Amino acid sequence: MLLLDGREVSKQIIMSLKEEIEEYQKKGLRKPSLAVILVGEDPASKIYVRRKREASEKVGINSICINLPSSISQEDLVQEIKRLNDDDSIDGILVQLPLPTHIDTGEVIQAIKPDKDVDGFHPENVGRLATGIGRGIVPCTPLGIWLLLKHYKIDAFGKDVVIVGASNIVGKPMSLVFLKDERATVTVCHKNTRDLKSHTSQADILVVAVGKPKLITRDMVKEGSVVIDVGINRLENGKIVGDVDFENVKDKVYAITPVPGGVGPMTVVSLLVNTLHLYRLKHGFPPHLFAQI
Ligand code: NAD
User: Considering just the CA atoms, what is the radius of gyration of the chain in Å?
Assistant: First the structure.
């Protein structure tokens, strides 16, 4: 079994991004910069924001964290985003999700200028990804998974890909990545899928992004397949596990991601890639190689 080591691969990408930023600075260009908006005090969101910030600093991206109270109005939040849209020194804007329930997440995402939408969630960027028209931004988790597969020379061409989970953040954009240029045959499963096993057991590449420990058991995967576990679940004993029963699945498959240490670090590194990608486009450079799928 091949362990798809996101920690190691992300380290390698981080090194190369760091060198790239040093080159920009030698040319007298300013540092790329990323603004992260955190609304409220959600502990998990705080951890994610901290990780993003630490990773940005490691490569030399200037990261600005804007903490706003959970009581903030929709209007004030949108105003803050507009201020960042107009600030020429900011390349990427990220609003950490989820937002408090009184805020309309869709409206907030649409307030971000598509050229600064580092998460790729704006409908304009989703549309670009879906149609191949224009230069879109691939959302970080699907991009990270794509980079991981590429690193291990796992080719999706002509394969049967099954994605479990159809969220706007992971499942749906992941399906678009595999559909690009009609590479793979893609099936997307979700909570209303009638017989999950009948789909997952046919998958050459299985991507699982649900948020339920041990949803995918040994009998549900195809022998010799590639399994990508996106899930992050905290068990009562504090242990972090994915959605796949890793211990029982691992010796049946060709390759699998661990949790933690698989998709998570690749998601963070993709945020840096997307920030650099937007920075490059703004400076009239060709798109970033790692941001291309
Ligand atoms: P979400 O809650 O937005 O979507 C979950 C999806 O799973 C939905 O499409 C739902 O229909 C589907 N689903 C629910 N129960 C199901 C079932 N029994 N069978 C099949 N499908 C079912 O979640 P999300 O934001 O896409 O995140 C999914 C998981 O991935 C979570 O555990 C999250 O923490 C994790 N995640 C990890 C990373 C990372 O970088 N590793 C990034 C994003 C999300």
Answer: 19
Query: What CATH code is carried by the domain that includes residue 205?
Result: 3.40.50.720
* Residue 224 within any structural domain of the chain: yes
| Beta strand extents in 128-273 (DSSP E only) | 160-164, 185-189, 205-208, 226-229, 233-234, 240-241, 255-256
Looking from the CA of residue 263, the nearest atom of ligand 1 is: 41
Spacing, Cα 244 to ligand 1 middle (Å): 12
Q: Considering the domain boundaries, does residue 244 fall inside one?
A: yes
Is this structure's pTM higher than 0.85? Answer: yes
pLDDT-based confidence at residue 12 (cuts at 50, 70, 90): very high
Beta bridge partners, 41, equal none
135-170 pLDDT per residue, tens: 889 999 999 999 999 999 999 999 999 999 999 999
Q: Is the CB of 267 under 6 A from ligand 1?
A: yes
Of 5, 91, 117, 119, which one is the catalytic site residue? 119
* Pair (165, 219) in one structural domain: yes
Q: Is residue 271 part of a domain?
A: no
Active site residue 52: yes
**Most ligand 1 atoms within 8 A of CB, residue of 96, 145, 170, 199 to mutate:** 170
